[in-house]
Structures are given as structure tokens and as C-alpha cells.
Amino acid sequence: NAGVMQNPRHLVRRRGQEARLRCSPMKGHSHVYWYRQLPEEGLKFMVYLQKENIIDESGMPKERFSAEFPKEGPSILRIQQVVRGDSAAYFCASSRTTGAGANVLTFGAGSRLTVL
Amino acid sequence: AQKVTQAQTEISVVEKEDVTLDCVYETRDTTYYLFWYKQPPSGELVFLIRRNSFDEQNEISGRYSWNFQKSTSSFNFTITASQVVDSAVYFCALSEGGTGNNRKLIWGLGTSLAVNP
Q1: Which of B3, B27, B46, B100 has the most CB atoms in a 10 Å sphere around its CB?
Q2: Would you call B24 helix, strand, or coil by DSSP?
């Protein structure tokens, strides 16, 4: 039973380019979360999605960032026109829908974005 | 406001020593969840424990134990007889919401533990 799969593990982009980070949740999990880990700042919530729905995007920057979780395929975190300040580790997590462990998040290994 | 404070930025111990990682939280909710995650040098985040606000019973899992004290808003983590493989950054996190449906975690800044041989 594969865990949360994120790719790419490392991504290098030049300023102004687009970054796309992908996340496949654990089997049986229908909730996906994206967190960003900035140096010296710790982990910050970005967005919470269910299939085809954004449930909570209160942590997403207002511009350049978007997330989706289509009916088929992985969740995508998209960053347009990247800037150096976007350099960070982006973690995806998934959880079950209901039940006692529904708010236990299983994390992927992270995608480390470097903007040159 | 919700907040998690891990006052210890870095801890260094010698193998076999016991070590306690502190976590203090702030919340206005009466129902909430507390978590510990481990981030080894490889970078992934590994779930260690979840505790809900109604369960103050301390928990032991092998060399790991957790002490939840609502009176002091603390959820401390102790590693007994530490090993080099315990070297990692440890995060404490808080989630609010009575139904458990709020899965937006508020994280501490982490404590970097180095266990030296």
C-alpha cells in the first residue's frame, strides 16, 4: 500500500517560470492538503481539497498559486511566474474521509523547489 | 488565536541519554487535537502520535512517551535511552474542531535533536 507520492522531489526553476507539483494520496484517502515549509518559518497550511473541490484555501497566496484535485489523477499545486521567495519544501498530505483517524495526516516526502 | 511553541530550537545529547522535547500550545477551543511528527534528515514527515483534548492519559510506545497536561497547555515528548537514529527535527502541531473535520494543523517551529554516539 503505497504512501503519499509526490513528484518531483526536487525542482529547479528560473524566475518567471511555472512550477507544477504533483501529489497522489494514499489509497483510500480522498482528502488532500498542501503545506509549505519555508526556512526558519516552519510548516504553513496552504490548501485543503477533496475530489474536484477546494474546501479551504485560506493559506494560499492570493496571486500566482493555484491547486486542484481532479476526479482522475493527482492533485496539482501550480505556481506561476515563480520568484525567489517561493523557494521552499512543499508537502502534500492525505487523510481518510471519516472515522477515528480522519484528521491524521499522512505526508509525502515533499517537493523541494529552488528558484534561481 | 491558535499557537504552538517549541521553545527548544536545538538539543544535543549523547546516545542512551533521555531527552524531553517541550511543546506548549494556545487555543480557545475546548475540543482540539495535538500531534507530534518527526522529520528525519531525509526530509519526510512521519506521524508519531495524536491526542485529543479529552484524553489526558499519558502514552508510552517503546522508548517514546508523551505527557499531556491541560492545566499547563503542554504536550511534552520524551525519548528514553536515545539512539543515533532518533536524530531528526520533531514538530508539535495543533488542530482544532470538535468533529475532527478541521485538519488544518498549526505547527511549532520544531526542535532539532542531535543524538551523538
Answers
A1: B100
A2: strand
Going A85 to A91 to A92 to A97, the CA torsion angle's sign is: negative
* One-letter identity of residue A84: R
Residue of B nearest to A41 (CA): B109
Q: Establish if B111 touches chain A: CB-CB under 8 angstroms.
A: no
Q: Supply the pLDDT for residue B98.
A: 52
Number of H helices and number of E strands within chain A? Answer: 0, 11
CA distance B34 to chain A (A): 10
Chain B: residue whose CA lies nearest to A10: B43
pLDDT tens-digit map of B84-94: 999 999 999 99
Which residues of B fall within a CB distance of 8 Å from A34? none
Is the CB of B42 inside 8 Å of chain A's CB atoms?
yes
- Three-state secondary-structure class, residue A86: helix
User: Cβ contacts (< 8 Å) between B44 and chain A: which residues?
Assistant: 107-110
Burial class (CB in 10 A: 0-12, 13-18, 19+), B92: buried
Quote the pLDDT of residue B84.
Answer: 96
pLDDT tens-digit readout, A63-112? 999 999 999 899 999 999 999 999 999 999 998 876 666 678 899 999 99
